[in-house]
């Protein structure tokens, strides 16, 4: 995935940050147990957020254990214990990772992504798609629709961002089932749109230099990222803040009884902080590990 759905650590209570890290590490370790150690590299912030939200919506209490990590084999840390809901998130991540690899191979002729998909991800994807047939169809259609828009050199932000936004909304509908509400759907749609636009801004310099599609480049005479951010700051801020306001408005209407502090920090502060950072960042975003 893209990895922009981050908490705002400086404004996060220690207990909430510890809980978030436990979810992140738990997802990573569960992925290793379920899919093999190499698949742990697909662990990301977006899926950690979805895992917290999934447990919160289903009102599922998690358990914790103190375990060492492959990156730190001496010091133990708190991790969320493996459960069926986490397995669901891992399966969805396997599906998303497979299609993201395919998309990167088509867009970038990425040999590394092709090798990773062929040797590691695809076998896990084949098992995960049998469990979530509908979600696999949603993701496949979304990426196909996106490819068609890219091939037509579409310059409409709303049209190009729609397929990925629709993927996130569709996943939430299938995942939450009878717990799904219109507010959840609208929040996830806006979040998907925000992520896609953030990624387009982040990649614009590389896309320009490599002659790749980026909807911002269709209607803008690009020279460099600094000038782009200066010239288009008002438009970019309007688009991203509209997504943010929709996310926050709908989140506030969702009944959350568990892990509210983590989710509020991510959706109220993390999204806002990351938006402001992206609009002033001339270099490509470097996602640090939690």
Can you tell me about this structure?
The protein has 290 residues and is mostly helical. It has one domain (9-278): Farnesyl Diphosphate Synthase (Orthogonal Bundle). It is 69% helix and 5% strand. The chain has ten helices and two strands; from the N terminus they run ααββαααααααα. The protein has helices spanning 14-35, 45-57, 84-108, 111-131, 133-151, 157-176, 182-210, 215-218, 225-251, 260-278; strands spanning 64-69, 72-80. Strands 1-2 form a two-stranded antiparallel sheet. Strand 1 (64-69) and strand 2 (72-80) form a beta hairpin. Helix 1 packs across helix 2 (45-57) and helix 4 runs antiparallel to helix 5. The protein is globular and about 55 Å long. The mean pLDDT is 93.
End-to-end Cα distance, whole Å, is 16 Å
Topology as H/E string? HHEEHHHHHHHH
What profile does the largest beta sheet have?
2 strands, antiparallel
Q: What's the tally of helices?
A: 10
| Name of the level-1 CATH class | Mainly Alpha
| Rg from alpha-carbon coordinates | 19 Å
How many structurally independent domains? 1
Supply database-style keywords:
single chain, 290 residues, mainly alpha, Farnesyl Diphosphate Synthase, two-stranded antiparallel ribbon, 10 helices, 2 strands
